[in-house]
Amino acid sequence: MHFVYVKVPVVADSDARDRRLHEGIEAELVAHGLGTVLGWGGSLSDPRRDGSRALGFHRIDIEVVDLEAATALLKRVLPALGAPPGTEIHSTPASGPRTEVCAASGWRVAAPPPGAV
Q: What is the pLDDT of residues 2-18, one digit of tens each?
C-alpha cells in the first residue's frame, strides 16, 4: 500500500466542492480497485505576524495499491470534480518524494524542496 495526499486551495464557500471531491475520488478509486480515501480536513496556514493562523488548504488522505495508476486517475478526476489550479498531489515513489501541481495548462512536477534526495 502507498500513501498519497491531495492539497486543495481553500476558497470561500468550498464545502460543497470539498464534499464532491471526497465522494468522487472515493468512487473512482473503488471502481478501479485502486484504493480508498482515509480521511480529509482543513490544515492551517503558517502563523501570521500576530500569531494567528487561517485555514491554509484542504487535505485529502488516500491509501492506494498501485501508486502510478492511482496518480494517473487522480490527475484525470480532480479537475473534472472541480479541483482548482494549485491543487497538489503528494506521493513517495521509490525515487523519492514527489509533488505534482495542477495548472491551467495541465499537471507539472514541482521542484523538490532543498535537501530532498
A: 999 999 988 767 777 77
Task: Classify the C-alpha dihedral 86-34-93-68 as positive or negative.
Answer: negative
Apex 15 CA angle, 9 and 19, nearest 5: 95
- Contacts of 49-56 with C-beta under 8 Å, sequence gap 24+, read 55/10, 56/10
- C-alpha span between 15 and 28 (Å, rounded): 20
- pTM to 2 decimals? 0.85
Domain 2-46+54-109 has CATH 3.30.70: yes
Residues 46-75 have a mean pLDDT of: 91
With left for phi above 0 and alpha for psi between -120 and 50, is residue 22 left, alpha or beta?
Answer: alpha
